[in-house]
Design a protein that fits this description.
Blueprint (H helix, E strand, L loop, with lengths): L4 E5 L2 H6 L6 H13 L3 E4 L11 H11 L4 E7 L6 H14 L4 E5 L6 H9 L7 H16 L4 E4 L3 E5 L13 E3 L4 H10 L2 E2 L7 H17 L8 E10 L3 H16 L3 H7 L2 E4 L1 H13 L4 E6 L3 H14 L3
Parallel strand pairs: 1-2, 1-11, 2-3, 3-4, 4-7, 7-8, 8-9, 9-10, 9-11
Antiparallel strand pairs: 5-6
Length: 314
């Protein structure tokens, strides 16, 4: 049986929200997560909508400070970047980490703050999905090596980048999202499926089947699409406090009612046993890599998650 991997989302956004600008505390947490036995470290991405440290820059620091953990974006908005520059940065980061990079990518929700973010960096919000797919195709062409000539949203004339990625063909790309279009993109084009909701493992299993069906329909091996999950958990022996903490966290982070957010996102609160049982249901549903965003005091939650993870056989 393939080992199910456990990931930890670093609190870059939370640090900025609390007024902490420094990067050292984040890199120290990454080291701690590796020491505790996490399999991967993840960084969110936003420029102005949910301000935080730049994903590629902070991952470069973590790559140097760690040796074993995989390093991922949860999730990157590739449309905000010129794909030639993105390809160059990702290739350099993949070399720096010696092949530990995973590019989780997403299309961004249609909310005012994100539309404003696109405007701020000079990128049209409309047709962003096509922009993302074409940009990633251009990046892959550059990762393959040799001169690339491209005619489309971007134009290149026999250009090439160096270094090439550590891994031949570039880092794996995981597509976020749980809508039907996201399932189709993951099955047809990506190396992994990486949704952040909903909270029901049964829905995850049903959606994973559709991802695999889409892969099979275009002649891809469905088993080559990694089934992953991004979840938010609040752990406390006082179950009512765990629930209140989760709701407060989500509302402070997204400035929306928790009741609405929890219909969209995989979020759960309870004791260590209850959270462990919930995570185990995702594993039973076919998930092979779970990235956890904890609520509460960071190192305490990191240790609690490791404890419950070993109890469910992760």
């Amino acid at each position: 049986m393939t080992k199910v991997k456990l990931g930890y989302l670093l609190p870059t956004r939370e640090k900025i929200m609390s007024g902490v600008q420094a990067t050292k505390p984040i890199i120290d947490l990454a080291r701690r997560a590796e020491t505790l036995g996490y399999d991967s470290i993840w960084i969110g991405d936003s420029v102005t909508a949910k301000p935080r440290h730049d994903a590629f820059v902070i991952l470069a620091g973590i790559a140097v400070a760690t040796e074993r953990v995989e390093l991922g974006t949860a999730v990157l908005l590739p449309m905000l970047r010129n794909p030639v520059l993105l390809a160059h940065q990702a290739a350099t980061l993949d070399q720096l980490s010696e092949g530990r990079l995973i590019l989780g990518v997403g299309t961004a929700r249609d909310v005012p703050a994100i539309r404003k973010e696109f405007e701020a960096v000079g990128v049209p919000f409309e047709k962003r999905i096509g922009r993302m797919l074409e940009g990633l195709d251009l990046a892959k062409a550059l990762w393959a090596g040799g001169p690339v000539t491209w005619e489309g949203r971007w134009t290149t004339n026999a250009v090439e980048i160096g270094p090439l990625p550590f891994r031949s063909g570039g880092p794996p790309i995981w597509g976020g999202g749980a809508a039907e279009g996201a399932l189709k993109r993951a099955g047809r084009y990506f190396d992994g499926w990486f949704p952040s909701g909903p909270s029901d493992p049964t829905v995850f299993a049903e959606s994973l089947k559709r991802v695999r069906d889409y892969a099979d329909a275009v002649g891809r091996n469905p088993d080559h699409v990694t089934p992953a999950m991004y979840v938010t958990v609040s752990i406390n022996s006082d179950v009512q406090k765990a629930e209140a903490d989760l709701n407060s966290y989500l509302e402070a982070y997204y400035l929306q009612p928790a009741s609405k957010l929890r219909q969209q996102q995989a979020a759960f609160s309870g004791s260590e046993v209850q959270v462990g049982e919930w995570l185990a249901r995702f594993i039973e549903a076919g998930c092979s890599h779970i990235c956890i965003r904890p609520v509460g005091e960071t190192e305490e939650q990191m240790e609690r998650i490791i404890g419950l993870w070993s109890s469910i056989g992760g």
